[in-house]
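Suppose a colleague, Dr. K., hands you the sequence of a protein chain of 339 amino acids and asks what its three-dimensional shape might be. Before reaching for any lab equipment, you can write down a predicted structure in token form. Begin with the sequence itself:
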Amino acid sequence: MIKTGIIGSTGYAGKELVKILADHPEADIVFLSSNSFDNRKFSDVYPEFKGIMDDILIHTEKASEKFSDIDILFTALPHGLSFNFVRQAYEYGIKVIDLGADFRLKDTDIFEHWYKTKHICKDLLDKAVYGLPELWKDKIKNSQIIANPGCYTTAGILALAPALKYGLIDPYSIVIDAKSGITGAGRKIDLSLMFAECNESLKAYGIASHRHTPEIEQELSQVYGDQVYVTFTPHLIPMQRGILSTCYASLPAFCTQDEVYSLYREFYKDSPFIRIREEFVETRFVKDTNFCDISLRIDIRTKRLIVTSSIDNLVKGAAGQAVQNMNILFGLNEMEGLS
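The predicted structure, expressed as tokens, is then:
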């Protein structure tokens, strides 16, 4: 059994991680930590886990005392709070998957500019691998530190990577219009996220300034082989979970829709969680799953490719992808515990 520990287990992503790992045939949860609910049962915080996960939560400050008992550590914390835990885990020789943003960006100047936080683990960045299995599975296999991708970034990168890899689109014409359920903002008290403020409303936010922008650009640039810039606009929609990204890019040369579909299927032929669909994708098709659904259309009139992708922001966009990475790290079938 893979012995696991979770720091930040009572946030939305942490809760989803507990749910998946509790039912994973090869995983055993050794400890769960929380800053807000220490010394309480996990099932007191989330009553649906009564009789399933009644473990007592330890305070996050005491988590490192348990590192000698685990094989892998998951950190599900806001940006800037994972540095010390990742360093300690690395020094223990423990594999670590960080669901936050602290190890995703390779350029610390870019990280500090977008996150307004000093990066204190610069020496570990070259040891961290960006944990998007559909692109970097071979690198993930041999890594000790995995930077689990963001939810918006997962949907956007998976939608556009094949088009850039095969040179189908102009890399300077990309526009990503993305919409997310409210759980994407995390489990916190915030007036703007209250039901009465969000229900019956739709809003754009982080326009030209969302922190997932440089992450999308970094990974798409690696796929393309040169710098890629994107216009990324996220929106908050009044539902609990799910992301729908509609991506637009210009087509320098004519190609048919069937040709594009064929290239996408070829690109993702070894990716069990990617479903290329002829019909338009919807968030309800992927809810509570680790799938990313992708559909394609060519607008002949404007010579643009339109790619729509859909994921569950808490599963493929967070906890499910983390477990997929764990499976790869330990030589398991990557779908183990996620089917």
